[in-house]
Amino acid sequence: NMIVIWAPYDSATARRLSAAITAEHVQCVRIKHKDSPVPHGFIVNWGSQSCPKYANLNSKAPIGNKLKELKKLSAAGVPVPKYMTEMPGQAGWLARKLHHVNGSDLAPDASPLDADFWTKIVTCPREFRVHVFNGKSILLGERAPMVAKHHPWIRTTDNGWDIVYPSMEPGKDPIGHSLRVTLRAVAIKAVKAVGYDFGAVDIGLQETGDLVVFEVNSAPGLDPGAELNRYRDAIIGASQEG
User: Which residues contact 180 (CB under 8 A, 6 or more apart)?
Assistant: First the structure.
């Protein structure tokens, strides 16, 4: 069964994923233009708004609208930051945009007067990324600073952070079994709430011990290694089952 990676936009991850699947001797093509003919096969929508409605994985287009995503998560009982659609009259709120990547709307030169909505500042000493695929957690990591001059709380690659996937060996796991179980349950609920078959969920651990979901990524960037390998294997497995 041919695997079709639907990603008609510039995506290094889509290229890597297609190559990784092909390297496993599984026929795979990547759709680079939305008007291209769709070959018969197992179609995986990799974060595209133009996906075919008959795609096998993530047939629904990504929400794209960050406020709408927060509302969907909140309605499903997923913990998210408090949000407002009118300018708050007090400190402690962040001006946000409906469409942003890597926290770009939080840049120092971003104008709060140009905001689409506001979210309450949440102090989180730790932040995790949980990858969910067809109702199961396939990988769980924690964000860690990679350079000395990293941003104190915008934990993106551009701001000096990366995701570390530590050993799960008893006694060597800095996350711990109990927290892993809780993070996985929240992430699975979040992916289901936004209507995706797979996604990467960013979750903060607050000083109070409570969790908060910041985002569900429908096309997470995958570095060569554990991330790429887990999605490659999961997609191949799903295509064979389907």
Answer: 140, 168, 173
Contacts (Cβ under 8 Å, ≥6 apart) of 15: 30
The backbone torsions φ and ψ at residue 6, rounded to the nearest 5 degrees and listed phi first, read -85, 105
φ and ψ of 131, to 5 deg: -90, 125
Cβ atoms of residues 8 and 31 within 8 Å = yes
CA 144 to CA 156: how far, in whole Å? 10
- The helix/strand/coil state of 185 is helix
Q: Using one digit for the tens of pLDDT, what is the confidence trace for 71-120?
A: 999 999 999 999 999 988 888 898 898 988 777 777 666 666 778 999 99
Q: What is the pLDDT of residue 136?
A: 98
DSSP β-bridge partners for residue 136: 133
Residues ≥6 apart with Cβ < 8 Å to 152: none
- Residue 107 has a pLDDT of 65
Angle between helix 226-241 and helix 12-23 axes, rounded to 10 deg: 60
In angstroms, the CA 157 to CA 110 distance is 19
Can you tell me whether residue 143 is helix, strand or coil?
strand
Buried b or exposed e, range 154-163, using 16+ CB within 10 angstroms: ebbeebbbeb
Q: Residue 156 is which amino acid?
A: T
**143, 162 contact by CB (below 8 A):** yes
- How far apart, in whole angstroms, are the C-alpha atoms of residue 144 and residue 162? 6
Give φ, ψ of 19 to 5 degrees: -65, -40
